[in-house]
Amino acid sequence: MTPNAADIEEKLLQILKDNRPGKEVRGCNTHLDIYERAVQKEIIEPLFKDLGEQGRIQDIDDLGHDTEFKLVWNRALRGQCEDWDCRTLANLFITNAVRDVPDFFRVVFKDDYDAIDAAILKNLPDLLSGGGMGPYTGWGLKSWMTGAHVDIKMDGLQASFCARDGSTLEPPPRYIAYKDSDPSQEPVEVYGLMSFHCEEIDYDTSIKAWQAWSNALRSKELNRRDQYDSVVGRMLMNLLPLNEIGISQMVLRQDESVSVEAGPDGVIAYRGEVRGLKRLVDEGQFLCGPRARFAEILETGGFSKAGAGAFLDTLAQSSSAFCALAPAGSNFRYMLDPETLMAFEEDGDDMLYDLDKADALPIMAAGTFEMPEMITHRDREARKLAANLSSELGEPT
Question: Labelling 154: which of 6, 164, 250, 390 has CA 20 to 30 A away?
Answer without folding.
Answer: 6
